[in-house]
Amino acid sequence: MLSEKTIQIVKSTLPLLAQAGPQVTEYFYDRMFSYNPELKNIFNMTHQQSGSQQFALFNALAAYAANIDNLAVLKGALARINHKHTSYHILPEHYPIVGGHLIATLKELLPEQFTPEVEYAWREAYSLLADVCINEEMSLYQKTKKAPGGWFGTRTFTITEKRMESSQICSFILTPADAKPVVVYLPGQYLGIKVTPANSDLTQVRQYSLSQQSNGRNYRISVKEEGLVSNYLHSLTEGDEVEIYPPAGDFVLREIDSPVVLISAGIGQTPMMAMLETLLSNQPNQSIHYLHACDSETQFAFKEYLIQQQQAHASLHCVTWFKDGKGGDFAGLMDVNHIAESLPISKGDFYLCGPIAFMAMIKEQLLGIGVASERIHYEVFGPHQSL
């Protein structure tokens, strides 16, 4: 436990963080990669270039400092971080490296304000946070390792099937090279995939949502052709192998009997497919609304599957928005007000996945028609942000 003095000192540095802004985290990453370039093989360098990782870390630092005396407030955020860390295979030995560079960054950027007393308080505070994360992440690692079909670290999988789902999205069936079972996962979770693209000097780790119901035999991911690693995966053929970390993620379908509304845009369909398949298999009479938006019909993945399932299940209601206005139920951007009367506003659980701007827009629409905020759940691809 932290002393009251330490808590007050850390909280008092909030104005310093606000004054320095994301410059703190930008400097931190530059410093860390300069002294420890091997970490470039763990961190997503694309997020470094875009600035999204720096922004996310700055927000996390500020949130931790503000709630250091009540970490329960950060339980959801920490759980999300812990799952993401396991998909990158972050280990206890990484925490002292990160902590050392964080303290050094604050000392170097704020030499007058970051006094020895402040430094001591921040070291204590970081140590507490590291212990919390390490304990939770080791628990997640052990749980997965001990589960039937589970493992620790990477495991080799073979691409046993490739199938185009739309003009840009390709599904990959991944089967373990050792022909043994695979650990089951919850609908909505993702895999960490470790590859070294031909045009990259670095090992790259990316997360891809599992896009089918868990079956204990293989995994399916569905990948949009954009970005370094996704383009590389599209270039692979059946028979090629990839290294995979076990399933992770806390954005999962809740075990409930209430109606479910799955809302996605673009590649955000992927976790929704796992949720939909699971619901149709386990609770076929449960009311399900599947809402999807994309630029055009050619980019609408899993179209035939959705048509078949809607014909087979009277409880499934699919509605689409195509931006170009050609086909689909509605033209332009998604607007749930078009179908508000048919949605389970008071009793349903709403799951969102897609670009940040899309989800923020839909969350605002849902709140506007009376959906309670605690019934709105969402997944962010990349560094987590609040809607």
From TrEMBL:
UniProt protein name: nitric oxide dioxygenase
Catalytic activity: 2 nitric oxide + NADPH + 2 O2 = 2 nitrate + NADP(+) + H(+); 2 nitric oxide + NADH + 2 O2 = 2 nitrate + NAD(+) + H(+)
Organism of derivation: Pseudoalteromonas lipolytica
Domain Globin span(s) in chain numbering: 1-138
UniProt-recorded Gene Ontology molecular function terms: nitric oxide dioxygenase NAD(P)H activity
Ranges of residues in domain FAD-binding FR-type: 152-254
Alphabetical list of CDD domains matching this protein: FHb-globin (cd08922), flavohem_like_fad_nad_binding (cd06184)
PANTHER family per the UniProt record, alphabetical: FLAVOHEMOPROTEIN (PTHR43396)
Domain of life, per lineage: Bacteria
InterPro entries tied to this protein: Cbr1-like_FAD-bd_dom, FAD-bd_FR_type, FNR_nucleotide-bd, Globin, Globin-like_sf, Globin/Proto, OxRdtase_FAD/NAD-bd, Riboflavin_synthase-like_b-brl
Gene: hmpA
